[in-house]
């Protein structure tokens, strides 16, 4: 049987008038933090999530093929964002799916579980560190981030059958054990996967036999966030919330969009503003409600949601706030700036081999089994610059360095001096440290279409940086997203070389691959490849970050090394928006680490809002302080799964 037995506890109809912690956004990071903070029964935690709970589609999300054949991309559980037209993509707008559901984008992602490298994470520590004695910065160096990534995991090695079919290299010590998120491999792979590392090797990219330990260079079969006891997606909700018995001190409220946090009239003794409550609403028409905050507000709305909530609260770049008619409470130019993303494009071949797409399309009995449906495109490779350029590319590196000052003047959309300084600091990091030594490109093979195989080339360290901002004070108006793709020449050059390398991997596959379908043999010169990328091929790899960057304030930072927003006493951002720069990795693993570390920091030391200023906490009698009693329409849910979830699945 593949039944999941779910025990749902419905809590009292009204939420409390105030909580110790209010978490804005119940996505990947938000639910991790909710779970960790509520381990202490003495603290109260409220999660406000804009999306629906997802119970209605839990079967789809949890279906083994949730990554592809029953994805929630494009459904009501997707924010369905689009960028503004991108001039360097022939004015195309790019679709940005994001999870609008408990679990956030971890409920819709492709489940690859890959880590950044030691050098990248240590550079993160270095860019926020004020010097040797800066202990807060140490939490963002490799050792600590690695520890936190592992803390979130329970690794289960691939089964023997799979191992003999496909060559999978791994070292179990490079993963965590006993953590909430299940990390493993699907039950089923395709023969073409078995030739992946050898084809790459022939093309000049050696296998990586111990991936995810801080050295991602090379080809390998990546693990996934999959639960091998039942072949379901392991995401922040199933891992961190459903696995718990219900907790009285944890309230999770779906269909509740955070509008803004409320600030006290008086700053505290250190001159910082204090968040005293959070305003939210079910939808654009419904009344606004407020809830008091006794300790802290934790923003976990992701790289679009968190800067939006800050800006709507009056914390952000002055020009943006004024244009949107939001009163400026704290001028913080970096909020929403520094937006970076990975761009990707795929070469497609016909193949005489059976792909997962053929099996799925056949409708056969096997195609319906959890084992088949657990198939995930796990073949990846991380490639460095010398593989892409047949040498160290010193000339290319020099061109990039020479373009730094001009790029900082012409490519940074918002010319606040701090934001420009941050751009330069990141630019130097990726041009000097990352270009020679850190992978520049990710390859991903896809086998989900019938009789076709495609390999993506995804650029990992963009010099093109954009921004996201509100253009209305209405929280239900979508944010503006402008990643400024390909505004810097280096991004295009790296992708163009990446496509060429992908072709050499295709050639190394030999007869297993048939003729090239896209872009097709007619597209060969630099100009032809670039036009193809611009006009149709380049697309997001779904890894936006940087919009609430952890950087020094004078470099356009939004949060400090404790994840506290500059100028605010008790508001943190803890999600994938805080990475100062992109990693050569998908972002989920590192985001779990941010959320785990945030939880530790908050448990160690958090702010106490003076009783008299908590919204609704004291009876001052004013309307602003009156807590709205919530009508019965709101679901207040705590989730729990019995151990039957595990035992009901027999594989
Ligand atoms: C299609 C897709 C495929 C991906 N594939 C992979 C992959 O294979 N491997 C990998 O590692 N990473 C992948 N990623 C990236 C990864 O899933 C995200 O980086 C990660 O989920 C980010 O976590 P987060 O907590 O920052 O944001 P999210 O998980 O997106 O959570 C943010 C939450 O906040 C909520 N929210 C936003 N605004 C508000 C508001 N005002 N009020 C209340 N709630 C709000 C949202 O609804 C959402 O639930 C993928 C992403 C996408 C979209």
From TrEMBL:
What EC number(s) does this enzyme carry? 1.1.99.29
- Residues crossing the lipid bilayer are 628-650
Its principal location? secreted
Q: What InterPro entries does the record tag this protein with?
A: FAD/NAD-bd_sf, Glucose_Oxidase_domain_2, GMC_OxRdtase, GMC_OxRdtase_N, GMC_OxRtase_C
The alphabetical list of record keywords is: FAD, Flavoprotein, Membrane, Oxidoreductase, Secreted, Signal, Transmembrane, Transmembrane helix
Superkingdom in the source lineage: Eukaryota
Per UniProt, subcellular location reads as: Secreted
Reactions catalysed according to its record: a pyranoside + acceptor = a pyranosid-3,4-diulose + reduced acceptor; pyranose + acceptor = pyranos-3-ulose + reduced acceptor; pyranose + acceptor = pyranos-2-ulose + reduced acceptor; a pyranoside + acceptor = a pyranosid-3-ulose + reduced acceptor
Q: Which residues take part in binding FAD?
A: 258
Keyword Signal tagged: yes
The entry's active site is: 543, 586
Q: Which GO terms describe its molecular function?
A: flavin adenine dinucleotide binding; pyranose dehydrogenase (acceptor) activity
A cellular component annotation (GO) from this entry:
extracellular region
Cofactor(s) this protein requires: FAD
Domain (Glucose-methanol-choline oxidoreductase N-terminal) ranges: 302-316
Described function: Catalyzes the single-oxidation or sequential double oxidation reaction of carbohydrates primarily at carbon-2 and/or carbon-3 with the concomitant reduction of the flavin. Accepts only a narrow range of electron acceptors such as substituted benzoquinones and complexed metal ions and reacts extremely slowly with O(2) as acceptor.
For this chain, the family text in UniProt reads: Belongs to the GMC oxidoreductase family.
Q: How does it assemble?
A: Monomer.
Kindly provide the name given to this protein in its UniProt entry: pyranose dehydrogenase (acceptor)
| Species whose genome carries this gene | Agrocybe pediades
Lineage, top ranks:
Eukaryota, Fungi, Dikarya, Basidiomycota, Agaricomycotina
């Amino acid at each position: 049987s593949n039944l999941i037995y779910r025990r749902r506890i419905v809590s009292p109809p009204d939420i409390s008038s105030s909580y110790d912690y209010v978490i804005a956004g119940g996505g990947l990071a938000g639910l991790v933090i909710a779970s960790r903070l509520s381990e202490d029964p003495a603290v109260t935690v409220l999660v406000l999530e804009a999306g629906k709970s997802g119970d209605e589609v839990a079967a789809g999300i949890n279906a083994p093929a949730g990554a592809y054949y029953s994805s929630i991309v494009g459904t009501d559980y997707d924010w369905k964002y689009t960028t503004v037209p991108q001039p360097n993509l022939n004015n195309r707008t790019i679709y940005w799916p994001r999870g609008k559901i408990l679990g956030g984008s971890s409920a819709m992602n492709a489940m690859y579980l890959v880590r950044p490298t030691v050098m990248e994470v240590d550079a993160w520590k270095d860019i926020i560190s004020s010097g040797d004695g800066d202990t807060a910065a140490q939490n963002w160096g490799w050792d600590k981030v690695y520890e936190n990534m592992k803390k979130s995991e329970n690794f289960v090695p691939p089964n023997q059958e799979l191992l003999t079919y496909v060559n999978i290299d791994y070292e179990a010590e490079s993963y965590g054990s006993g953590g909430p998120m299940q990390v493993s491999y699907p039950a089923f792979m395709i023969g073409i996967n078995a030739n992946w590392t050898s084809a790459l090797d022939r093309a000049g990219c050696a296998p990586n036999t111990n991936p995810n330990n801080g050295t991602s260079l090379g080809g390998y079969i990546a693990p996934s966030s999959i639960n091998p006891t039942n072949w379901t997606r392991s995401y922040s909700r199933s891992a961190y919330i459903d696995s718990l018995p219900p907790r009285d001190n944890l309230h999770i409220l779906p269909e509740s969009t955070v509008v803004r946090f409320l600030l006290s009239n008086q700053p505290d003794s250190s001159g910082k503003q204090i968040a005293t409550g959070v305003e939210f609403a079910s939808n654009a028409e419904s009344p606004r409600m407020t809830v008091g905050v006794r300790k802290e507000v934790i923003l976990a709305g992701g790289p679009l949601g968190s800067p939006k909530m800050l800006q709507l609260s009056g914390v952000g770049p002055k020009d943006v706030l004024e244009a949107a008619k939001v009163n400026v409470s704290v001028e913080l130019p970096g909020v929403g700036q520094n937006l970076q993303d990975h761009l990707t494009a795929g070469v497609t071949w016909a193949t005489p081999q059976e792909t997962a797409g053929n099996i799925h399309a056949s409708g056969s009995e096997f195609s319906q089994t959890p084992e088949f449906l657990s198939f995930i495109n796990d073949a990846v490779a991380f490639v460095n610059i010398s593989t892409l350029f047949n040498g160290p590319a010193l000339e290319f590196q020099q061109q990039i360095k020479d373009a730094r000052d001009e790029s900082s003047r012409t490519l940074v959309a918002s010319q606040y001096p701090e934001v420009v300084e941050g751009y330069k600091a990141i630019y130097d990091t990726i041009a000097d440290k990352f270009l020679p030594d850190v992978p520049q490109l990710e390859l991903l093979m896809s086998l989900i279409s019938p009789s076709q195989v495609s390999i993506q080339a995804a650029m990992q360290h963009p010099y093109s940086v954009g921004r996201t901002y509100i253009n209305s004070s209405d929280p239900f108006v979508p944010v503006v997203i402008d990643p400024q793709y390909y505004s810097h020449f280096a991004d295009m050059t790296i992708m163009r070389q990446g496509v060429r390398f992908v072709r050499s991997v295709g050639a190394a596959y030999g007869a297993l691959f048939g003729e090239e379908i896209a872009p097709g043999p007619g597209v060969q010169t630099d100009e032809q490849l670039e036009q193809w990328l611009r006009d149709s091929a380049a697309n997001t790899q779904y890894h936006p970050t940087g919009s609430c960057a952890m950087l020094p304030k004078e470099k356009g930072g939004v949060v400090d090394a404790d994840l506290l927003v500059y100028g605010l006493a008790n508001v943190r951002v803890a999600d994938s928006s805080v990475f100062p720069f992109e990693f050569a990795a998908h972002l989920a693993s590192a985001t779990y680490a941010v959320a785990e570390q945030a939880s530790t920091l908050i448990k160690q030391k958090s702010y106490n809002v003076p009783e008299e200023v908590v919204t609704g906490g004291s009876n001052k009698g004013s309307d602003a302080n009156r807590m709205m009693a919530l009508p019965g329409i709101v679901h207040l849910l705590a989730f729990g799964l019995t151990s039957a979830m595990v035992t009901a699945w027999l594989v």
